[in-house]
Amino acid sequence: MERIAELLPYIEIILSVLLVASVLIQQGDPDLGGAFGGSDSAGASYHTRRGFEKTLFNSTIILGVLFLVVAVVSLII
Length: 77
What we know:
Elements: H1 2-25, H2 52-76
Helix pairs in contact: 1-2
């Protein structure tokens, strides 16, 4: 159990770097109109994720959940 407790901070650091990288790689909306309530067209902000974008989106969610689990486990131990 002590070995796991020693490894948890390193796992958490690796997960945090991967999570930040995956969030930054994702494509964002270039204009800020949607952030302030306006938009050029009503349906332009929604699109279907395909291919690498969908894989990156799903892996970001998985990394976030893993980071949360490791953080809670390190608090408990």
